[in-house]
Design brief:
Radius of gyration: 15 Å
Membrane topology: Multi-pass membrane protein
Helix content: 55-70%
Keywords: Membrane, Transmembrane, Transmembrane helix
Mean pLDDT: 91
Shape: elongated
Largest sheet: none
Protein name: DUF4870 domain-containing protein
Structural class: mainly alpha
Subcellular location: Membrane
Strand content: under 5%
Pfam families: MamF_MmsF
Low-confidence stretches: none
Number of helices: 4
């Protein structure tokens, strides 16, 4: 783990951006993946903290996309609507929580995340 005092302020800001840019999906299609991917690709070699936060954000956003696709398919049996609402609320809350933690220099691990990028 990282000591919050050992992570530079710039690293904290870019780590936070890795999470916050997921909200760009409201403006750009697939922005929840593109935004964190851009920050991670640019900064991953400059800081282990940003590398860790970028991978975590990308893994979570990809996982959420998969959960949304599954929920959309399950709309046929009516449970999908409830699942989509639950996934959307969880996504919103967890992205905000991760952004706050990253801004404090704390490594945040999302629950319910499939680790595609290691």
């Amino acid at each position: 783990m990282y000591d919050p005092h050992s992570v530079s302020r710039d690293d904290q800001i870019f780590g936070m951006l890795c999470h916050l840019l997921a909200f760009s999906t409201f403006i750009i299609p697939f922005g929840s993946i593109i935004g964190p991917l851009v920050i991670w690709l640019i900064k991953k070699d400059q800081s282990p903290y940003i590398n860790e936060q970028g991978k975590e954000s990308l893994n979570f956003q990809i996982s959420i996309m998969i959960y949304c696709i599954i929920s959309s398919i399950l709309i046929i049996v009516f449970i999908g609507v409830l699942l989509l609402i639950a996934v959307g609320i969880a996504w919103f809350i967890l992205v905000i929580l991760a952004s706050i933690k990253a801004n404090e220099g704390i490594v945040y691990r999302y629950p319910i995340t499939i680790r595609f990028i290691k």
